[in-house]
Specification:
Distance between the termini: 32 Å
Number of strands: 12
Oligomer: single chain
Strand content: 15-25%
Mean pLDDT: 82
Order of helices and strands: HEEHEEEHEEEHHHHHEHEHEEHH
Low-confidence stretches: 1-27, 47-61
Bound molecules: adenosine-5'-triphosphate, magnesium ion
Strand order of the largest sheet: 1-2-12-11-5-10-9-8
Shape: globular
Length: 333
């Protein structure tokens, strides 16, 4: 996740203090920016000629993007009477920021296609493959799951018959890493996610709280050092205090692993706190309705979330999401 000094965003200036067009991750030209307190709304003209295809050649835009969606549509049960289009014409590019990574919060009404987008990046069926358009990770078309992408789900996904240590080292085991080495790394990651090696390494998932299980899930993903981390409401089932603790844990870990993170949440506060930018999706079929650049999480969650300007951004996004839903219900969006 990126860090930047606190700035006062102004017209044509992003929260990182650079011109919005210079540090933007989307290819469509910035047509306007809008200061909303701690963040900047970036308006783009996706419809202008030349933007029907996102240009990815290195010479044109620099390094190969981490993730790129080009006019992606997903229709479940395509060609059948129960065909359903979950997302339509979704295009975005997340550039590779070496030694930095980026944190993208994804917000939107239930059913708008957030999990569909994440699983298309992960290469998981039946979301993968897209019905139309192209999904690329590090410049290559996604053909299925890969070690360059890790996923953490809301539902607890540990293997019930494996201990904490064996769960965390599962991926290394699959890659043939010798037991001694993988267990050393596993214990390191048990500590990194705030669990106790002596007390917890031999426990089974049923002996853990929800927060502890999500710590195991995070460690299991991060131990493989994925370039892209996909998190689908990972803290949705946790109580508010545990959730704040987990947000701070995540921020600390991200500064170490420097991956690009896609984080789906229903909590606007969580997206604004964790995100470098927030993508707001419209109702089904989902499209990216708005992109908002927000201040990075450079102080503890409980502290930052009490600040007025933080709350102003949250209210702004809440109104935006409500307006998107109203537009769709009126058949305008
Ligand atoms: N395997 C599937 N087959 C058919 N339709 C599906 C399938 N998976 C998802 N859908 C539909 O696609 C739409 C988008 O689903 P998705 O799970 O991506 O939404 P979401 O934004 O993650 O929702 P939530 O916030 O409730 O998790 C929904 O209407 C859902 O019913
Ligand atoms: Mg979902």
């Amino acid at each position: 996740m990126t860090e930047s000094n606190e700035t006062q965003p102004s017209d044509q200036t992003s929260a990182s203090g650079k011109p919005a067009s210079a540090d933007s991750n989307l290819q469509a030209p910035v047509t306007a920016t809008e200061d909303i307190g701690v963040g900047t709304v970036i308006h783009r003209d996706d419809s202008s000629p030349g933007n029907s295809k996102v240009n990815t050649s290195e010479s044109a835009i620099g390094p190969i993007p981490v993730v790129q969606f080009d006019r992606v549509t997903k229709t479940y049960n395509a060609g059948q009477p129960n065909a359903f289009t979950a997302i339509k014409d979704v295009s975005f590019v997340v550039q590779n920021k070496p030694d930095q990574g980026e944190f993208i919060g994804i917000l939107g009404p239930s059913g708008c296609g957030k999990s569909t987008i994440l699983k298309l990046i992960a290469g998981l069926e039946p979301q993968h493959p897209a019905t139309e358009g192209s999904v690329k990770v590090l410049g290559k078309e996604v053909m299925g799951p890969g070690a360059d992408r890790g996923m953490v789900f809301q539902e607890y996904t540990s293997f019930d018959h494996r201990t904490v240590l064996d769960n965390i080292t599962f991926g290394l085991e699959c890659h043939g890493v010798p037991r001694k080495l993988r267990e050393e790394q596993g214990r390191h990651w048990i500590e990194q996610v705030g669990l106790d090696v002596a007390a917890d390494q031999h426990k089974y998932p049923h002996e853990l709280s929800g927060g502890m299980r999500q710590r195991v899930a995070i460690a299991r993903s991060l131990i493989l050092r994925p370039r892209v981390i996909l998190m689908d409401e990972p803290f949705g089932a946790l109580d508010p205090q545990t959730r704040l603790n987990m947000q701070d844990l995540l921020v600390g870990l991200w500064k170490q692993v420097q991956a690009t993170v896609f984080f789906v949440t229903h909590s606007i506060e969580e997206a604004v706190y964790l995100g470098d930018r927030v993508h707001v999706l419209s109702s089904s079929p989902g499209t990216i309705a708005r992109e908002v650049q927000v201040e990075p999480p450079n102080r503890p969650a409980a502290e930052m979330q009490r600040e007025q300007k933080f709350q102003d951004t949250v209210y702004y996004l809440r109104d935006l999401i409500a307006a998107e839903e109203a537009l769709k219900q009126a058949g305008v969006g």
